[in-house]
């Protein structure tokens, strides 16, 4: 297996990060998790948009191969081909170059890309409950992946302790925000609901794609601030990320008929077409 470091293919076992490293020292950067399938990046347009937004907010100059979709696709293709993969989960880690303490010395960025085999899953039905120990942290950078990573680590620990399939995070005001590693959606009265980005949830690429697909097919979509009771009164609910869409059968003990809901089935069909 190989990694791509600043555009150069390196055998994985021979790769080393040099110090100082601002990503390691200060979490000064972001990452993207992408799915490579059918010789391209799934939801590539949405990934690129989030990368560009993250770079702007964090004050980073994206390296040339990361600035447009054609260049990014060509870059990842090198790694996919060298690693003899057909479908892959790809992780792009971007961090600020140079050293310094909290105040950076440069806006230039370094990056590393890794890939591993990916097998699509249909998303088994899941039981969920609301987090008790962790809440989101709304900020100008909460939409991107990386700066708030510890919050999701703690959420994963709580989910594991409680034996849940999904843990649902609330914002500081108690509104529904997201799942531990996915966006949350629900259906009621012919409308699709999802929390607003201002709740501090990640601006998920699958979230953006699903909203675009739903709107294109005339399904009204509402983004807002919702108390947990709104989700508990839903007809169906599901989580979604780049890897899978997962219907929820129970939320905080309330049963939902998500898997059989006709609108959810239609949404999945629209997305697949």
Give the terminus-to-terminus CA distance.
33 Å
| The CATH fourth-level homologous superfamily of the largest domain | D-amino Acid Aminotransferase, subunit A, domain 2
Helix content bin: 25-40%
User: What is the level-2 CATH architecture name of the largest domain?
Assistant: Alpha-Beta Barrel
Overall, the morphology is globular
CATH class (first level) name of the largest domain: Alpha Beta
Uncertain spans = none
Query: What is the fold-level CATH name, i.e. the topology of the largest domain?
Result: D-amino Acid Aminotransferase, Chain A, domain 2
Task: Give the tally of structural domains.
Answer: 2
Main sheet record:
9 strands, mixed
Work out the number of β strands: 15
Order of helices and strands: EEHEEHHEEEHEEEEHEHEEEH
Mean pLDDT: 96
The DSSP helix count reads 7
β-strand amount:
25-35%
Spatial extent as radius of gyration: 19 Å
What would you call the structural class? alpha+beta
EC number: 2.6.1.42
GO biological process, one term: carboxylic acid biosynthetic process
InterPro entries: Aminotrans_IV (IPR001544), Aminotransferase-like (IPR036038), BCAT-like_C (IPR043132), BCAT-like_N (IPR043131), Class-IV_PLP-Dep_Aminotrnsfr (IPR050571)
Protein name: branched-chain-amino-acid transaminase
Question: Secondary-structure map with pairings?
Answer:
Elements: E1 2-5, E2 8-11, H1 22-26, E3 29-37, E4 40-41, H2 44-58, H3 69-82, E5 88-96, E6 109-117, E7 126-135, H4 149-162, E8 166-170, E9 176-179, E10 183-188, E11 191-195, H5 205-216, E12 221-224, H6 228-232, E13 236-240, E14 245-251, E15 254-255, H7 262-272
Parallel strand pairs: 7-8, 7-14, 11-12
Antiparallel strand pairs: 1-2, 1-6, 3-4, 3-5, 5-6, 8-9, 10-11, 10-13, 13-14, 14-15
């Amino acid at each position: 297996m190989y990694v791509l470091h600043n555009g150069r293919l390196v055998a994985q076992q021979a790769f080393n990060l040099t110090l100082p490293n601002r990503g390691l020292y200060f979490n000064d950067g972001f990452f993207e998790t992408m799915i490579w399938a059918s010789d391209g990046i799934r939801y590539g347009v949405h990934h690129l948009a989030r990368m560009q937004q993250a770079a702007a907010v964090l004050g980073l100059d994206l390296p040339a191969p990361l600035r447009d979709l054609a260049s990014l696709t060509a870059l990842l293709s090198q790694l996919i081909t060298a690693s003899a993969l057909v479908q892959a989960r790809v992780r792009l880690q971007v961090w600020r170059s140079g050293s310094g303490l909290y105040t950076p010395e440069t806006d230039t960025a370094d990056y590393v890309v890794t890939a591993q085999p990916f097998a699509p899953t249909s998303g088994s039905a899941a039981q969920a409950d609301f987090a008790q120990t962790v809440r989101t942290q709304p900020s100008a950078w909460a939409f991107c992946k990386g700066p708030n990573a510890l919050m999701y680590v703690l959420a994963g620990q709580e989910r594991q302790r409680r034996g849940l399939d999904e843990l649902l995070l609330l914002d500081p005001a108690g509104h529904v925000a997201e799942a531990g590693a996915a966006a949350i959606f629900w259906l009621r009265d012919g409308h699709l609901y999802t929390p607003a980005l201002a709740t501090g949830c990640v601006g998920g690429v699958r979230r953006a794609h699903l909203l675009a697909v739903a709107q294109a097919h005339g399904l009204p979509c509402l983004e807002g601030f919702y108390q947990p009771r709104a989700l508990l009164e839903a007809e169906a609910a599901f989580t979604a990320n780049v890897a899978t869409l997962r219907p929820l059968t129970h939320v905080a003990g309330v049963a939902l008929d998500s898997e059989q809901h006709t609108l959810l089935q239609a949404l999945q069909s629209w997305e697949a077409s």
